[in-house]
Amino acid sequence: MSALISRREMLRTTAVAAGVWTTHGALARAQSPSPNEKLNIAAIGIGGRGGDDVNGVTSENIVALCDVDEQRGGPMFQKFPQAKRYKDFRKLLDEMHAQIDAVVIGTPDHTHAPVGVMAMQLGKHCYCEKPLTHSVYEARVMAETAREKKLVTQMGTQIHAGDNYRRVVELVQKGAIGTVRDVHVWLGANFKGPAVPTDMSQPDAPTDQPPVPPGLDWDLWLGPAAFRPYHSAYAPFHWRYWWNFANGQLGDFFCHFCDLAFWALNLRHPTTVEARGPVHPESAARWTIAKQEYPARGDLPPVTLNWYNGGPYPELVKQKEIPQWGSAVLFLGSSGMLIADYGRHQLLPEAQFKDFRRPDPFIPNSIGHHREWIEACKTGGPTTCNFDYSGALTEAALLCNVALRTGQKLSWDAAKLQAVGCPAADAFLRREYRPGWKL
């Protein structure tokens, strides 16, 4: 590990001495392939969802693959035998940075930022799965690094590319339901973490220590996270339900569903955040109810965003005879309501909108979520879920868990990245990395 750190520091020092490091991002854009050429892409974290992301960019040259688990990474390693193989992303970037244009990140949440920041500091365009990071501070650093280096970025909110979200945004922004001041978002999926007790409490960290499976480098899997002995309760899938590695159901789905509210209403940073639900020192909340207040944006009024996951439907849904879809986003307007999920939407009350004429579409259909990023890398064009947009979305998601874990209503100063008058929040806004790891 020390050799890798020394090598990275040497690369930085050499670049600064040559007078090019601070413009590395601009050089990366200027030297990107033409639209008719292929990108050279390195993929880091290639099992599960990460493998799907690799498949999404197969129109380009896959020149390097990295996964800490030989078994999980096996299908992609076999599919691209010409790609150079790695277990340690730092070694990949140290050795291959001159040969790659862009990086795709499909690792667990707790390693998104270390991978992404190192890649972007080396001038590489970046695609990263959602949520963008494990902590609020990391999300801000990812967004600022992408902006500083002038890189093309995209977070993996694939639903954003669907036609349904575009039509909903058009309806809201054209005033189909009047002025929107309240949004309710609910997630029907229940907590599916390991060893869920029957009394509905949250699981404690496992105490037994089974052997690490062959081919898995557990130290590299942990990365910057606090040490935990290997257990199948963590890897390869259930890491989602432990604070040390992720942010539970809220971390998994807020960026998908609340993306629609952020897009339609031009939301960015909340001013207050409050949340309730069961709090456990190790495992993420089984259910969460949260409320965020957003300020006025130009002519748009303040908005209250309400989030519910893992519990019953909001009382509002029951009282107003709103369709009880498993998961949904409900916009409450001054002259109607609009409910939507990933693939459908409906204006309410139905009788009121019987003869409604939809506005002409003004948001072009997507060429494909991964394709948008690829084309933008080649042309310098925009992406719809770049790290500036998705960084703010991720910050909003993770602030709900900060409020939950502190047990306090947060007054949020986005410019200072600070919960005013709540020093207890600091430990949840920015985590300590294990020795040998840094952002």
Structure description:
Mean pLDDT is 90; it is low at 1-30 and 195-199. The strands form 2 sheets. Strands 13-12-11-7-10-9-8-14-15 form a 9-stranded mixed sheet, covered by helices on one side. A 6-stranded parallel sheet has the order 3-2-1-4-5-6, with helices on both faces. The chain has 2 domains: 2-158 and 382-386, 3-Layer(aba) Sandwich (Rossmann fold), CATH 3.40.50; 161-193 and 246-365 and 392-420, Dihydrodipicolinate Reductase, domain 2. Helix content is 33%, strand content 17%. The chain is built from 14 helices and 15 strands.
List keywords for this structure.
15 strands; alpha/beta; 439 residues; disordered N terminus; globular; Rossmann fold; 17% strand; 2 domains; Dihydrodipicolinate Reductase, domain 2; nine-stranded mixed β-sheet; six-stranded parallel β-sheet
